[in-house]
Model the fold of this input.
Amino acid sequence: MVEQYLFILWQWISTAFVKMLVVWCAITLLAFLGTRVVKMRVKAITFASPKREGVLSLLMMLGILALLFVLQLLQVPGEASFLTRGLLLTGTSLLMCLPIGISLKLRRQTPETVGLSRENLPAALALGTVLALATLALFAAITLLNKGALASKSLATPQRLLYLITTFTISALAHEFIYRGYLQTRLSAWGGKLKGLLASALIYALWHWPKFLQAEFNGITMLVQFIALFAFGLALGIIYNRTKSILPATLFHASNDLAQTLWSLV
Done:
């Protein structure tokens, strides 16, 4: 049994994980270089009471995780259309943002405290577009080298492709708003950049745990999925730290999800 699990782990790590890690590292490096070319005014976000903000953000995340767990218990019918599944994903993402939006409004905190700054908007969009295009190109190159083919016709139709892009962008924006803009900003203000980065990436990986349970993954599959999501969260967090804007991380996140949907990396 142990040998079987080790074999599965080795197969997964030696294929999909390594390829994804190569892309994520390349995009993170590109973001480092890009922030030297694209001028962005990066200012540290400060709070009157960093500890209180950090604790509150953790409590908020517990509430959102509990909400997610309840939502995951609602089974989507197997015959549900692609459109229905996409709308449910979008609705869930927006619903998760609602408590944070209300909190920001009640506590009179500015959009800059969640990585939404008008000042750096053109630069953030330019950098994010470069990261997104580079992500798609790298995943396409890896797929072509390994399989010699890209997307299937059923996924590559213009209507479905447009819907995928829209759905993944909304979902990625919600996630980056929550985990990088809100959570990482406050944990970094409380415990420092490194601790904030590691904690937000860890919580981001834990966010997917209800999905693992719903999918009835075995132990080894849950472990490798968790490691991959933690690594992805680190890449997104590093990009956010370099820009203090959630837009570059959002576009990278959305293009990553789109590429992995269109092109199998295993």
